[in-house]
Design a protein that fits this description.
The complex is a heterodimer of chains A (about 600) and B (about 375).
Chain A (H helix, E strand, L loop, with lengths): L1 E5 L2 E5 L5 H7 L23 E4 L6 E2 L10 E3 L3 H16 L15 H9 L17 E2 L5 E4 L8 H9 L6 E3 L6 E3 L16 H5 L5 E3 L3 H9 L4 E6 L20 H11 L3 E4 H24 L10 E2 L4 H10 L13 H17 L6 E7 L3 H7 L13 E4 H10 L21 H4 L6 H15 L19 E7 L14 E8 L1 H12 L7 E5 L17 H16 L10 H11 L5 H7 L10
Parallel strand pairs in A: 1-5, 11-12, 11-14, 13-18, 14-15, 17-18
Antiparallel strand pairs in A: 1-2, 3-4, 3-5, 6-7, 7-10, 8-9, 16-17
Chain B lengths: L17 H10 L2 H11 L11 H10 L6 E6 L8 H24 L3 E6 L7 H18 L4 E6 L9 H8 L23 E5 H13 L1 H4 L10 E8 L5 E6 L4 H8 L4 E6 L5 E4 L18 E6 L4 H15 L5 H19 L6 H15 L3 H16 L1 H5 L1
Parallel strand pairs in B: 1-2, 1-4, 2-3, 5-9
Antiparallel strand pairs in B: 5-6, 7-8, 7-9
Helix pairs in contact in B: 1-4, 1-7, 2-3, 2-4, 4-5, 4-7, 10-11, 10-13, 11-12, 11-13, 12-13
The chains are: A alpha/beta (about 600), B alpha/beta (about 375).
């Protein structure tokens, strides 16, 4: 243990602890900006400077490891003056049109200004000297360089967490900026639209593309029939933007709020998540049969899940030779969209051209996914607007809803039924667990051999998880699988996806089925989720997801009554011709930069 | 005030038998060499002036079997051109110094990071390097040197940015600690030394520390190669004993009308005429990596300052706030003062900003912008305002 004093208070911390973290133990708050719990230390904003006795300069507390006998002061005149200067310098370079900014009141620079730099800024406005660009090319987010404070959180996110580096630092000095390959628009580079950078940007430099006004317009249009679906991960995180602690489940209140907002029908992406399990599980078993019984060498393993549009774009850019390994299933959002303007419209006797299909997603990549040209199986744009969890919170506030005192409500039917298997799609490992619950039972006629259906080996926040299930006691149709050991792996965060893919490329991957989610923690850690995020916050959301599962009456996808009904009335059976038309898709090779 | 007067010295460019010096060095133990270098009082000749013996001692003490010696030949400080001359004339002494450093710290490989603009020297330097490699092979010593080229960024002369550049990354300074002696290039213990420092070590090993300490003052031992430019009838490279006053220097090199000397380049200090007599060129007075720029009364010190600020605004890596934005503010601020668009007292605010930059910037670049700013504004305030 290392002993030091901070503001004359003694503290002992393990070697390697930063001054910043040591101060936290003493409940001494040091302001930070470029620092983020998910990212490596940068030490470049300098907001966290403190005085170290005997040091020639101030030191950045986030980047300075403790040393024996160190004496730190966090609140001297020297520190205060420097801190004020630094915040004012950042403001002088930042287009401070706060009242018009989407991040107004949620901006970390604004909060610092409020604490340290109120009153006149002595510095000259530098914004006018720069030719800042606003990149609106991405369907998922806007990049406004005039709001950027060069903290490089986005750059570190893109390289450390996502292994993409679609954005990086370019130029030097006054011209330094965060840029893309050859300064191309974000829509034309390797960006997966995952929005992890958006989730970590302290200012309004990176914000999601909002479609709030368009959705309001549709709701107020008497001609339109506006339906909304909500993704599993939204219900365990929405509360954070409405005053609840991380991990609070607000499903019923959310449904009621959506009804109050005025959606004609409030439905659940859980329904199409269950449908995904039926389609994807069948696809997996069919591939296994082709490989094992028909000895068809063209069948590719491992099979990868295809629910995460950020992951899809990642593999299209980085590992296009493995596109045949991807499940052809659309994501639950897009399955829902294809059915909304076909099956649903038919059942509800509404003109599909009048249906406006909105989805509430924890994700920014879903905005991009909805815009993919192949996502028009219904003859219309399957999903019209995608809103993030954050945008929904804004709408709830705009509508003047007293969320906390709202009575819970139930989803509408049809396509509103859910199971616990669908809910857990929101957490890393959830798709795998749901698939195993159904596939195992389909093949053996018995439930998965795990206590209370909880397949714990596939759960948790470890980057890459693996598990195997021995298949025994197969029914007659599936005898060829008797005694087989189904090997699966789960990765979340694209840096972990890349580890799995590197093994696959080297031929070292032993798996049959791999679940990959682009975001850390899976969808609960999506780029469209409430800000801030950290491992602890994600863990709370994950816990809430599994609580939600435990509270469901039905916990296996094949038990979902809406799913049973749709196969009976509309689709026939899983992987049928009609199912293929509406629920499956194809992929494209993309450039690697 | 210890004052040695102006004395020309001829150590750095003196031709020697490198094989003899190296054979002698390789017979010495690590500790013996470190002691010699410590005793010599040699401080880094790049400008920062860290004691070379200490740097080697720290690096030698590291347990990692993989270590490096890096020669910083990214001579980018405005007004400095002595390393170019040293490499051009006695590169074999630089290589020799690297081998001695390697032997001392336990490095089998060295890198020379050569300023991009010096690419024209490379064919000759590579040929001399081949000869050097042959020579140490003959001695039977295992050591190899590689070249890495800079691409024109001033910041890559900062040691940790230089490492990043060698590794193929964007040249941005790292957080310290850890210092290079613990984690340098490829995150391995590294001693990074200036071209001239390494040559000086060759001479110290040949002549012994006791000979070297006869030169210079208590705080500034030995001699130093100066790059002299500006309003002088004799611009060029001169090796001088440390410990002279600016007055003595100006008497030798000035044109009779010198009003200021910028010591240490853009990141150094401006010494006005009234302080010539009492300012020693050395670590006890104004330290320098070698750049000495003389200005006579025909020069506008506003233009001089503007030029430096323009330089820093462009050459800051842009990573940390005080440096990136501070440079822009200083530049724009003095422009506005000059134009009368803000009150002249705004200069006081800018001096405070320069002080913040000095204590809050991440690396030496931002920390030293205030040197020139403060000394020019304090001494030539009227030239900035009017």
């Amino acid at each position: 243990m290392i002993n030091l004093t901070i503001n004359d208070q003694k503290v002992s911390v393990p070697a390697g602890t930063t001054v910043l973290d040591a101060a936290k133990q003493l409940k001494i708050n040091i302001p930070t900006l470029c620092n983020h719990p998910d990212l490596c230390v940068a030490g470049n904003c300098r907001v966290c400077v403190v005085e170290q006795k005997g040091a020639r300069t101030l030191v950045a507390s986030c980047a300075t490891p403790v040393a024996e006998g160190m004496e730190i002061n966090t609140n001297t005149l020297k520190v205060r003056n420097a801190r004020r200067h630094i915040v004012e310098l950042l403001l002088s370079e930042h287009r401070s049109d706060c009242t018009k900014c989407y991040k107004n009141t949620k901006c970390e620079l604004q909060a610092l200004a409020n604490e340290f730099a109120f009153g006149d800024n002595i510095f000259l406005d530098l914004v006018e000297d720069h030719l800042y660009t606003i990149d609106r090319s991405s369907p998922s987010f806007t990049k406004d360089d005039s709001k950027c404070i060069r903290c490089q959180r986005c750059v570190r996110t893109c390289s450390e967490l996502q292994y993409i580096s679609a954005i990086a630092v370019a130029n030097k000095g006054a011209q330094q900026k965060i840029s893309s390959f050859h300064n191309k628009p974000m829509s034309h580079v390797i960006c997966t639209n995952c929005g992890q950078c958006v989730n970590r940007c302290p200012t309004g430099a990176l914000i999601e593309k909002t479609y709030i006004d368009q959705v309001w317009d549709a709701i107020y249009d008497p001609e339109k029939y506006v339906i909304v679906q909500t993704a599993p991960a939204v219900r365990v995180a929405l509360g954070e933007d409405l005053g609840y602690d991380p991990g609070e489940r607000v499903t019923g209140k959310m449904v009621n709020a959506l009804k109050q907002i005025g959606f004609d029908s409030v439905l659940d992406t859980d329904f199409s998540a269950d449908l995904t399990i039926m389609e994807e599980g069948t696809e997996l078993l069919t591939r296994l049969k082709k490989a094992l019984v028909d000895k068809d060498a063209s069948v590719k393993f491992p099979m990868f899940t295809s629910c995460s549009p950020g992951w899809i774009k990642f593999i299209e850019h980085k590992y296009p030779e493995f596109l045949p390994n991807l499940s052809t299933c659309k994501s639950p959002q897009q399955m829902f969209g294809a059915l909304a303007k076909t099956f649903y419209a038919e059942k509800k006797k509404v003109d599909p051209s009048k249906v406006v299909s909105v989805s509430i997603m924890p994700c920014t990549a879903k905005k991009y996914e909805a815009d993919r040209p192949e996502m028009r199986a219904s003859g219309y744009k399957d999903i019209d607007f995608v809103l993030t969890t954050r945008e929904l919170a804004v709408m709830i506030k705009q509508a003047g809803i007293d969320f906390r005192n709202l009575e819970p409500a139930n989803y509408d039917s049809i396509m509103g039924d859910s199971t616990g298997a669908a809910v857990i799609f929101g957490a890393t490992g959830g798709v795998m667990e749901a698939a195993l619950r159904t596939a195992y039972e389909l093949v053996t006629g018995r439930e998965v051999p795990f206590n209370n259906l909880n397949i714990t080996p596939v759960r948790g926040l470890e980057g890459v998880k693996e598990a195997s299930v021995k298949i025994e006691g197969c029914t007659d149709d599936w005898k060829f699988l008797e005694g087989a050991e189904l090997k699966v792996a789960i990765a979340h965060g694209l840096v972990n996806a890349n580890k799995v893919m590197a093994d696959v490329r080297e031929g070292k991957s032993p798996y049959h089925f791999v679940e990959i989610m682009a975001c850390p923690g899976g969808c609960i850690g999506g780029g469209g989720q409430p800000i801030p995020t950290s491992r602890e916050i994600r863990q709370n959301r994950v816990n809430a997801i599994y609580e939600e599962d435990e509270h469901m009456v039905l916990r296996k996808s094949h038990d979902n009554p809406d799913v049973i009904a749709i196969y009976k009335e509309f689709l026939g059976k899983p992987n049928s011709h009609k199912a293929h038309e509406l629920l499956h898709t194809h992929y494209f090779e993309r450039d690697s930069y | 005030m210890e004052n040695k007067g102006l004395n020309k010295v001829g150590l750095i460019f003196e031709n020697i038998d490198p094989k003899e010096v190296l054979t002698k060095a390789f017979k010495m133990t690590r500790d013996e060499i470190i002691q010699q270098v410590l005793d010599s009082g040699l401080k880094g000749r790049g400008g920062a002036g860290f004691p070379t013996g200490m740097k080697w001692k720290f690096t030698a003490a590291e347990k990692d079997p993989e270590k490096y010696i890096v020669c910083n030949a990214d001579e980018g400080e405005p007004g400095t051109f002595k390393d170019r001359e040293i490499l051009d004339r006695v590169a074999y002494k630089v290589y020799g110094g690297m081998a001695i450093a390697g032997h001392t710290i336990g490095a089998k490989e060295g890198y020379v990071y050569l300023r991009g603009e010096y690419k024209f020297l490379l064919p000759k330097l590579m040929k001399e390097l081949d000869d050097f490699h042959k020579m140490i092979d003959e001695i039977g010593y295992d050591f190899r040197i590689h070249y890495r080229m800079g691409s024109g960024a001033y910041i890559c002369g900062e040691e940790s940015a230089l490492f990043e550049s060698i590794e193929g990354f964007r040249g941005e300074p790292r957080n310290k600690p850890p210092y290079p002696t613990t984690s340098g290039v490829f995150c391995k213990p590294t001693s990074i030394n200036n071209v001239e420092t390494l040559v000086t070590v060759m001479m110290i090993i040949r002549d012994g520390a006791e000979s070297y300490v006869r030169l210079g003052t208590k705080d500034s031992r030995g001699s130093k190669v100066f790059s002299i430019s500006g309003d002088t009838p004799t611009p060029g490279i001169f090796e001088l004993e440390l410990g002279m006053t600016v007055q003595e220097f100006v008497k030798e090199f000035g044109d009779g009308d010198t009003k200021a000397v910028q010591v240490g380049g853009a990141s150094g200090f401006c010494v006005p005429r009234k302080k010539f007599e009492n300012t020693i060129i050395g670590f006890e007075g104004v330290p320098t990596g070698g750049s000495m720029k003389l200005f006579n009364s025909s020069r506008s010190m506003y233009n001089v300052l503007h030029n430096y600020l323009d330089f820093f605004t462009e050459e800051s890596c842009g990573q940390c706030t005080p440096c990136r934005v501070g440079c822009q503010q200083l530049l724009k601020g003095v422009e506005k003062v000059k134009k009368g668009e803000v009150k002249s007292t705004y200069l006081n605010e800018l001096v405070k900003l320069a002080d913040t930059m000095k204590i809050a910037s991440k690396c030496g670049l931002g920390q030293s912008v205030g040197n020139a700013f403060r000394t020019i504004v304090e001494n030539f305030r009227e030239e900035i305002i009017y």
